[in-house]
Amino acid sequence: MAAEGSHADWMGALPPALRALPLSNLAIPGSHDSFSYWVDEKSPVGPDQATAIKRLAKISLVKKLMKKWSVTQNLTFKEQLDSGIRYFDLRVSSKPDETGQEIYFIHGLFGITVWDGLMEINSFLTHHPTEIIFLDFNHFYAMDNNHHMYLISRIQEVFESKLCTKDSVENVTLQSLWDKQQQVLIFYHHPLYEEYPYLWPGNKMPAPWANTTNVHKLLQFLETTLGERAKHGTFHVSQAILTPRVKTIARHLVRGLKNTLVHRNLPVILNWVKSQKPGVMGVNIITSDFVELVDFAATVIALNSLLLEDNKS
Fold first, then answer.
1. Which residues, 6 or more positions from 1, have their beta carbon under 8 angstroms from its beta carbon?
2. CA distance linking residue 311 with residue 128, whole number of Å
């Protein structure tokens, strides 16, 4: 298992030459549907699902099967952070029949409240002041402006002065953030980002999605989108994930995502990661499902040593 605590301070341990590089040039491990380690079978099906699924889900067995396809991580936020994960892919929703403004993580089924997740992340950051994280709020469901205002106020309440204010991406280095004691970059894929100095626009965190079950098509897609990566101005997410189609789920209903797609293909994906190089036109953030099944985070972090070789030459 790769989920050891040995990478809890990996950013702080990087050599001075790398601390001065833009974070967009470093190799940073991330997780896909980062919050989905726990989903609530007893909750209603989320507004991110089609009406037909919602009808089917009235049968209790259906929700048990949904869970097998909704869960894409085994580790909690803290365990992911301890293992070196620094980018979190977040989808959030209100519960349509619930009074109040509470917001939950969601992937087919509802997860924990966003508040609880952010508190867990903040506690880690307080104990590891050299570590920087990216929180990418990229899907919102059943949320009006009041829900957004509530969520944004919660983000501010939890992280306070740790929030990194918007800047040009090239200016954001580990050293510059340490100097300001800022640790959290929030990407908010909604027009409201314009009104807050600490909400970065979603277009600064492009995460092209292959949407395939074929690992060779996935790797080809990752190469193509890296080749098109803009030289300046954004971070970049390589989503090293396979996406089940409806027929994939129907054929392997009981086996679930991990046993159907992930176990078999992760070694091939990891080999692709090992062959990459970070830098202006190279990889930046790489995300995976079930990050502990292989030595994913450590493999991505190790790519940064290639930047040192560049420096020497």
1. 292
2. 27
According to DSSP, residue 56 is labeled H
Q: Minimum mean pLDDT among 108-117, 246-255, 293-302: which range?
A: 246-255
State yes or no: is 148 an active-site residue: no
pLDDT tens digits, one per residue of 55-94 = 776 777 777 888 888 899 999 999 999 999 999 999 999 9
Nearest-5° Cα angle at 86, 118 to 269: 130
Structural tokens at position 146: 């009041």
User: How many helices and strands, by DSSP H and E, does the chain display?
Assistant: 13, 9
Among the listed residues 107, 128, 148, 236, the single catalytic one is 107
Helix (H, G, I), strand (E, B) or coil at 168: coil
Whether the predicted model's global pTM rises above the 0.90 cut: yes
**pLDDT higher than 60, residue 22:** yes
Q: Give the integer Cα–Cα distance in Å for 305 and 307.
A: 5
- Candidates 210, 182, 202, 213; CA nearest to 69 is 213
Q: In this predicted model, what pLDDT tens digit does every residue of 162-171 receive, in sequence order?
A: 999 999 999 9
Q: Indicate which CATH number applies to the domain containing 18.
A: 3.20.20.190
Domain count, the chain: 1
| Helix or strand run (H / E) with residue 268 | helix 263-274
Token output for 69: 């396809």
Instruction: Please confirm, yes or no, whether 232 is among the known catalytic residues.
Output: no
Token code pair at residue 98: 């619930």
The terminus-to-terminus CA distance of the chain in angstroms comes to 35
Active-site residue identified among 32, 128, 147, 236 = 32
Give the pLDDT score at 158: 98
**Domain region containing 125:** 5-312
Q: How, if at all, do strands 184-188 and 199-201 pair?
A: parallel
